[in-house]
Design brief:
- It is a single chain.
- With about 200 residues, the chain is an all-alpha fold.
- The chain has two domains: about 150 residues, no CATH class; about 45 residues, no CATH class.
- Helix content is about 70%, strand content about 0%.
- About 10% of the residues are buried.
- The C terminus is likely disordered.
- Keywords: Membrane, Transmembrane, Transmembrane helix.
């Protein structure tokens, strides 16, 4: 039971944080830590079990992050090309493309460090790997909490709706990204405080 105590603790902190202020990023971090400690506890539990199924699950858990890393890099690169095609060639639209290429560069650096007999390269690779793990953890916390946050029941007694903007194409045309946000917010502008079932 003590093995699952950290996961329960961070889950409680996440729940308290949501009740106090659901917008705080610390809620996402607490939830991410809860999931991480829960996964660690489950792995330890499976490691103690002497069965073929437990070994298969452990192998799958070890291989899943490597496969997920390559899939994520491919999706980021594909999304980067899509952003360039739809939103125009601007530095802000290169973010996902650069992230995908950066992930592949980190993987290549780690592979090169394991093959080369260079303490300096190995130190650099380990530092970059730890930094990448930290940033990836924060990114996954943000994505996971954003998914859950979007499914929380919104308040109905609001006076204003804020739509995050983006740059205009040529200074006059609304890009598809901003257009989709405006289309999503448009039905909410006519909502009444007591309107039921209106999710924006």
């Amino acid at each position: 039971m003590l093995l699952y105590a950290p996961a329960i603790l961070f889950l409680l902190l996440a729940g308290i944080g949501v009740l106090r202020d659901r917008r705080r990023f610390s809620n996402a971090v607490h939830l991410g830590l809860a999931v991480t400690f829960l996964a660690f506890a489950l792995l330890v539990t499976l490691g103690r079990a002497d069965s073929v199924l437990a070994e298969a699950v452990l192998i799958a858990v070890v291989l899943a992050p490597a496969l997920a890393t390559l899939v994520l890099a491919a999706l980021l690169i594909a999304n980067g090309f899509k952003m360039l095609r739809k939103e125009g060639r601007r530095l802000a639209n290169l973010l996902s493309l650069l992230c995908g290429v950066g992930i592949l560069a980190v993987v290549a650096l780690l592979l090169a460090a394991t093959q080369a007999d260079s303490p300096v390269l190995l130190t650099v690779a380990r530092t970059v790997f730890l930094l990448s793990c930290y940033l990836s953890f924060l990114f996954l916390c943000f994505i996971g909490y954003a998914y859950l946050y979007g499914r929380l029941t919104p308040r109905q007694d609001v006076d204003y709706i804020v739509v995050l903007g983006s740059g205009l194409l040529g200074g006059t045309r609304v890009p598809p990204l901003l257009a989709s946000r405006l289309d999503r917010a448009a039905p909410c502008t006519n909502a009444r405080p007591r309107a039921a079932g209106r999710h924006c």
